[in-house]
Amino acid sequence: MALGLNVQEPETACDDENCPFHGELSVRGQTLDGTVASTDMDKSVVVEREYDVTVPKYDRLMKRRSRVPAHAPPCMDLEEGQQVT
Fold it and tell me: How many CB atoms lie within 10 A of CB 46?
């Protein structure tokens, strides 16, 4: 099944209905690039994203980060520190 994104399909199959590759979940909206920060939850990961924000008063850039929980189906073998889209 093609997602319309430039990502590789996992080799192992799963029966998760919320899997974008093997289930009924449609991929839409924004796609974020980040690093897997935590894999402690069941079928979920925390993706950490770093970005720069301009501070007009000092005319400098400030680093910020955000942590977003995301669903990770069993067919995706994710580890902490791995780059994800």
Answer: 18
